Amino acid sequence: MRILVVNPNTTAAMTASIGACAARVTTAEVVAVNPAMGPASIESHYDEALAVPGLLTEIERGERDGAQGTVIACFGDPGLDAAREIAVGPVVGIAEAAMHVATLLGRTFGIVTTLSRTIGTAQDLVERYGFGARCVAIRACDIAVLDLDVPGSPARAVVTERCRQVVEEDGADSVVLGCAGMADFCDEIAEAIGVPVIDGVAAGVKLVEALVALGLTTSRRDEYAPPPVKAYSGALEGFTRRKPLAPVTVR
Ligand code: 5HY
Questions:
Q1: Which tens digits make up the pLDDT trace of 158-188?
Q2: DSSP of 191-248, one letter per residue?
Q3: pLDDT tens per residue, range 107-155
Q4: Would you say the CB of residue 42 lies under 6 angstroms from ligand 1?
Q5: In what order do the strands lie in the sheet with 174-177?
Q6: Ligand 1 centre and the CA of 75: distance in Å?
């Protein structure tokens, strides 16, 4: 089995770290990639919008190269719906994956994210995925995404402290790490705070692996049918699709 893990930002060092975390939890082949075009990190609605074209390009390329399922390794789950329209295999975002896993481990969970400006997106995803009654807190670290792995930075300590607050002050039974760049912190933080800490990269890989093993993929019935054929102009001309993907038969 080959699983594609796409880091939608363009920072290769983060992609490598994400890929290593993914490979640790599966015997499937993990192909971790990032687009050549797009933002160096995704910390705003603007970044998120500009990350999607490159993400979709990588997903189509990855499936052409044999990937059977895809993980979108960014906590905002950018482009998830568009990816599900064009991908043949199942597509899972790390936020959705982590939240589903968290709800199997306790009544409530909390989320610890990077900048406070991303709290609204995390809240929107909580509501969209139907976990409003289960998510008791979303706290930010006020650390930029690319500062998470700077040697000697206080990032690990700050993320650990926020996770502790989400448990001890907000009453969460588990904690979801709100950034793919925190994947490396997961085990250490779980050890420190004594409750399950969920890294969406690992959760996403295992969920995609399960879906592929079950022979399941996105329903083509209506919303996630291949996009209608039309022209795209200017810088997006290359995204013109000559014909919809062949319908996929699923069990
Ligand atoms: C992520 N940004 O997982 C998100 C985290 C965030 O570049 N990778 C990014 O702060 O939204």
A1: 999 999 999 999 999 999 999 999 999 999 9
A2: HHHSS-EEEHHHHHHHHHHHHHHTT-----SSTTSPPPP----GGGGGG--SSPPPPP
A3: 999 999 999 999 999 999 999 999 999 999 999 999 999 999 998 899 9
A4: yes
A5: 135-140, 109-113, 174-177, 197-199
A6: 5
The SS3 of residue 26 is coil
pLDDT of 59 above 50: yes
pLDDT band (50, 70, 90) for residue 243: low
> In testing the pocket of ligand 1, which one of 179, 185, 186, 199 has its CB within 8 Å of the most ligand atoms?
179
Q: Tell the residue nearest (CA) to atom 1 of ligand 1.
A: 74
One-letter amino acid for residue 140 of the chain:
A
Q: Which atom of ligand 1 is nearest to the CA of 182?
A: 3
Best CA proximity match to 101, nearest among 23, 21, 203 = 203
pLDDT beyond 50 at 249: no
Amino acid at 9: N
Shortest-distance atom of ligand 1 to CA 115: 10
Name all domains of the chain by residue range, CATH numbers in brackets: 2-95+203-239 (3.40.50.12500), 97-199 (3.40.50.12500)
Average pLDDT score over residue span 6-29:
98
Long-range contacts of 224-232 (CB under 8 A, 24+ apart): 224/81, 224/84, 224/85, 225/85, 226/85, 226/86, 227/82, 227/85, 227/86
Residue 80 token pair: 């998830």
C-beta of 75 in contact with ligand 1 (< 6 A): yes
Q: Look-up: residue for tokens 């568009």? A: 82
